[in-house]
Amino acid sequence: MTQTRRPANAVSRFVIEYPLIPIGVALIVLFSLLQPHFFSVTNLVNILTQSSVLLIAATGMTYVVLTAGIDLSVGAMMFLAAALVAALLTAGVPPVLAVILAPLLTIILGAFNGTLVAKAGVPAMLVTLATLQVFRGIGGHLTEQQSIVLPAEVRFLGTGDVLGIPRAVIVAAIVVAVGSYVLRRTRFGRHVQALGSNPNGAWNAGLPVSGLLIAVYSVAGLCAGIAATVQIGRLGAVQPTLDLGFELTVVTAVVLGGTSLNGGQGTVFGTAIGAIILTVVENGLVLSGASPYLFDIVRGAVLLAAIVGAGIPKQLAAFLTRRGGARAPVTS
Known about the structure:
Order of helices and strands: HHHHHHEEEHHHHEHHH
Number of helices: 13
Low-confidence stretches: 326-332
Mean pLDDT: 87
Strand order of the largest sheet: 1-4
């Protein structure tokens, strides 16, 4: 009886389990050599702050991708949430209440996406591609396609610090920690992973498939709303192009973190590492004076690799099935 050979030491096991961390360290070393200022404490804190919005939004997206779905409307939801805050402030609503209502709106928008996917049976990509246009159009109507400067009272989540740690980083850390705990330690999280791994099996096992799908898109909506409140706090304004195309960066962070587009495999922790690595790359390219379009190339390459990689197992299975069928013995 042969036994599976395990890595010789703890370092090897760690590298195999979390391969992105050594990659992240290597990128930090590389950009530090290219630009000495990169490794300063100020810039490293700045990287964490810059990644906070992406970390929050990508946490919710992880749940969706784990069910083999996708939400292309995340950026539009964030823009609409920001536009709602601006509209409510104009109407005289107290700033704190306006900020609280933004995530409530995006939960409803996420549930709407999930309902169409679960009940109408429309592919998630088509549903969210359509709602992307709808949400962004509504946001544009609320802002009249004008840049709106926000008062300091609504910026409390995106500015300031607690014991030297930026509030945006604290909010992101809480969202990632809660998202990871729910996914790994609760029945809901186990059901989400089971649904992504084997949808038919989940249905046959009596899991509430429709309810789960609505719930995961609601989670993505909630995270989009929280991300929007942090973002407007950092920016202090709502612009017509806010978060245009941001959904692609969110999906890239998720797949870079190891979540399979086929569903059923992935972690929030991996997504967090993927989000930070993307921010490291973007920050390093800016400090190095490289073309800003290089980041788009990196993001597109990661997405392309994930899409191709997601299709390989199915193609391999189909090939083996055909080969097996061709060689099947004929019985009388």
